[in-house]
Amino acid sequence: MKPSVARKLMSVALGKSPANLILRGGDVLDVYTGEVLKGWSVAVSGERIAYVGPDPVHTIGPRTEIIDTSGRLVIPGFIDAHSHIFNFYGDVSDFVASATLSGTTCVMTEATELFTSLGFEAIDELTAFAAGQPLRIYFAAPSTTTLCPSANARALSPRYLNRLLRRPNIHGLGESYWSFVLRHEPRVLRQMTAAARAGKTVEGHSAGASGLKLQAYLASGVNDCHEPINAEEALERARLGIYVLLRRGDVRNELPAMAALVGRGISLRRFCLVSDGVNPKHLKDAGYMDATVQEAIDRGFNPVDAIRMATLNPAEYFGLDRDLGGIAPGHYADILVVPGPRRVKPEMVIFNGQLATRDGALVNPARRHIYSERVRHGVPLPRAFTPADFAIRAPADGKINVRIIHQVTPLVTREDVLEMVPVSGELKLDPSAGLLKAAVIDRAAWPGKYFTAFIRGWGLQKGAFAISATWDMVGITVIGADEGDMAFAVNRLRETQGGAVVVAGGNILAELSLPVNGYLCELPSSEVVAKLREIQHALDGLGAPYADPQLTAVTLSSCSIPYLRLCESGLMDIRNHRLVGLFPELS
Amino acid sequence: MKPSVARKLMSVALGKSPANLILRGGDVLDVYTGEVLKGWSVAVSGERIAYVGPDPVHTIGPRTEIIDTSGRLVIPGFIDAHSHIFNFYGDVSDFVASATLSGTTCVMTEATELFTSLGFEAIDELTAFAAGQPLRIYFAAPSTTTLCPSANARALSPRYLNRLLRRPNIHGLGESYWSFVLRHEPRVLRQMTAAARAGKTVEGHSAGASGLKLQAYLASGVNDCHEPINAEEALERARLGIYVLLRRGDVRNELPAMAALVGRGISLRRFCLVSDGVNPKHLKDAGYMDATVQEAIDRGFNPVDAIRMATLNPAEYFGLDRDLGGIAPGHYADILVVPGPRRVKPEMVIFNGQLATRDGALVNPARRHIYSERVRHGVPLPRAFTPADFAIRAPADGKINVRIIHQVTPLVTREDVLEMVPVSGELKLDPSAGLLKAAVIDRAAWPGKYFTAFIRGWGLQKGAFAISATWDMVGITVIGADEGDMAFAVNRLRETQGGAVVVAGGNILAELSLPVNGYLCELPSSEVVAKLREIQHALDGLGAPYADPQLTAVTLSSCSIPYLRLCESGLMDIRNHRLVGLFPELS
């Protein structure tokens, strides 16, 4: 803090200047000692806390706002230690509003796709986005761990990474998938070194790793993982010294399985509760950080442990515990008033010393960020697509083995090999046999470059689904039972400059426009939820079996999930860490 | 870590390269989860740990050294989170050797006096000192919180402070006494801001503060305190969010009183065990970090908590927990083998991947640092002192009130006012009435500048005691019953370029030379202990009542202890935060 702020806080603490705000006479959860301090008060001056103790009378002036918190518990604001707020689909201002209502006063977020689109200049958009919001936002510099050439072509140079790491609102290096680190990807290892030297975090992603591979990955200097899906995976990671981030968000909810950690005498000081990203539907159905902490308590975690997992623990992890994560003199006044240790839905949220919510409603409407023009033209495809663009030519006459993406769960794919016979030199899809096509089109490094493959598991009997919110690269994923509909869907996204669209027989069945960077819109969340539901219903009607078909589609371009994924330059063979073509005999 | 190190560690973890060293089959204390992992092993490659788990067989190569740790507990190396290793008197190499034998693999130390002597260039001496030692040493940049003008004249400029804070071996800003912060000393507040901005620690010193003053002090952004002397003071600080450093060193041992913290359900995650400095006598009598952790255990602290207070907790506090403080892949291999959770005297110490001790003995002799010439001429007094130099002239004829330093305990002084009558215009000491003289002479900013005052409490019937190891400023303190002996003692230190000397009637009764910066010598600790004992006996014989007369003498120049202290420019009135002269009516 500045000397002038320190002087003011000291003056208030000593009773020489009045506080702006006092929370009086409730109980205060002391996350440091683990005690509930009965009848304590908190006095706030400007953005920070000046006094925490039994009697704040010396800090009261004629204009001091005094809030009676008797019978209530005062706790620190929640921190989401790992998120992806720019994958929200909806208006991120709506996310911010929901986050504030849920008592979230700080979010650590990835912003990979924005950096892939804008390069280093993304930091200006991000900083402008975060300014004046009722919560603190810290961003990860992307490590760009992918086999996708278009994304790698847009990865930040070491020079720009080092510049980013000097920014106070960059908390560290974003999640670096373990298979890339284990393959000794030179750029990633250098990025990790740079982040550690800057004293910043190195986020991990060790989904499915265990035993020696996990040991090797963590030996590289990774600091956390948000991917354990059961108590044993969580415990294996915690024992090896990293922070374990327990996820409850739109991708998965790990808390039911993590209840098995309770009652085993395991210290949870290096565990955090995180979302790993939420979308409007998840927010509506499952809530955000207050609901996450509540679920942890309801599943048997000690309430102090549960609250610490969303306050002190993440603050310590990110080296922010001198300012955040606890209620103490000199810290930012990010404070929640909740019913008690076992009921943590906030009745009041104080952010940066100001009342942000009262009686469960925002005090001020959410600030709507005006996105810059540079992120409003996210689909710069040089030409329209035609059905013929998605034809797959056989390399020779006669039977040939073809690699097929088999979507075996909503997230996991595997590689199948299918013997196919060309018809007029072309390999055809066959919806009746479950054989569809998928293509990924780049829209950042080399706009319009694309690759088409076969996919099974989606079950579409006709039509196509295209979406521009691809993970880990900036592109369009299109899945279809018909090349004409695939082209139509992609061309529709070219028209709207981003979105998700379900088409069949040349008609739009359902659609959500995402004109901001191809990832976001500026519609209210309720409309986004309705449109996502329409998309799901339309895809249900076409035969897709997924509860969250967008998620299944956008993860197709990510190397974070095994085993065979797709990008503009080919198939990504995760297990063998290489780009491959359609024909095993040829690549 | 460098990418090449990460690659090597991963290779070892995966069994593709052999480990250098394996600790096999003991129990491993997991400070993260709090578990003792039975029959686990640790594999080390180079400086770091590659693998921690139940079976290291895949890391064994033909030249791997395997140490059987069965029946033993493997724990992280100890960290002393607050020390003053350059106030050791003896050869600091001996300190290092004792520290290593005690399992201390990291020390955070102040180096105020070296910076006051050398300015910014002290960092070169410190860095050279630390290089190649069998423990990591981090230094604090001094805040120079004192009323002493000569020390303030040598305080680091903001520019140099910022340069220092960028050094990885500078852990933060050194202890800033609370009264200076509460007085809004502009330089100190700016220094604190700079340290916090650099992401580094701001060390506190809130001796005796409580209630509103403590709240105000902590609101300024201070991060720790090593001064609580009972459980209530410790708890008051812990609740307010700072790290509480429990001291056991040559100044005090707080652990007997801190046992009252046990059994109250208080989380100790933000408590650390520290020395606040040791001298050779303390090391010999009371031991160092292993003895401190052992005493904590013996006084009832949970052994896992006690060990964490000297491992994980300080590592987290200093933001070093990605490298230190626990046994985990990727961390430095700073490891102790101890008998078990309740007996922590190390049988073996591994530092930076190498065996440092075996069977309680050093593997390699301590490296002796060759101090540079610039710290070998620490007493540059321009001329010899004469008895008349210590005369005190009365400002007028007749009775006059005079400020007297009253040494009421070995550390605390108070201000007495005595009505005195000049004799031939001079105010005289009176050993038979307990009235002696004390002078402090600067030897850094303005060598030879001095101030003489009266002191009572020391009890000398004759002779004088001079010592150059003054706290918080670089000077000489001399206390005497005779001005001739005072001059003789000071001149002797001018001859030896630093030390402690007891004289009487023009004879040297006992002496320890401290030719390095006036603070240190290069004698073995056993000789230093003997000489300190001779000094004490000599002072006993002259009538001084103190068990550690050096400490009483050197703290006379420090503003860290109330109430009336002495520097080259006058008396320092701590309570009123001002420099005063001898005569209350005149200043």
Number of helices of chain A: 18
Intertermini distance of chain A: 58 Å
Largest sheet of chain A: 9 strands, mixed
Overall number of strands of chain A: 30
Radius of gyration over C-alpha positions of chain A, nearest whole angstrom: 25 Å
Beta percentage of chain A is 25-35%
Provide the low-confidence segments of chain A as ranges: none
What is the helix fraction of residues of chain A, given as a range? 25-40%
> By helix and strand content of chain A, what is the structural category?
alpha/beta
For the largest interface in this structure, which chains are involved and how many residues does each contribute? Answer: A-B, 69 and 68 residues
Approximate shape of chain A: elongated
Oligomer status: homodimer
What does this structure look like?
Two copies of one chain form a homodimer. Chain A is 27% helix and 27% strand. Chain A is α/β, with parallel strands linked by helices. In chain A, the strands form six sheets. In chain A, strands 1, 2, 3, 4, 5, 14, 15, 16 and 17 form a nine-stranded mixed β-sheet that branches. Chain A has an eight-stranded mixed β-sheet with strand order 20-19-23-22-25-24-26-27. Chain A starts with a helix and ends in a 7-residue tail after the last strand. The interface between A and B is large, with 69 and 68 residues.
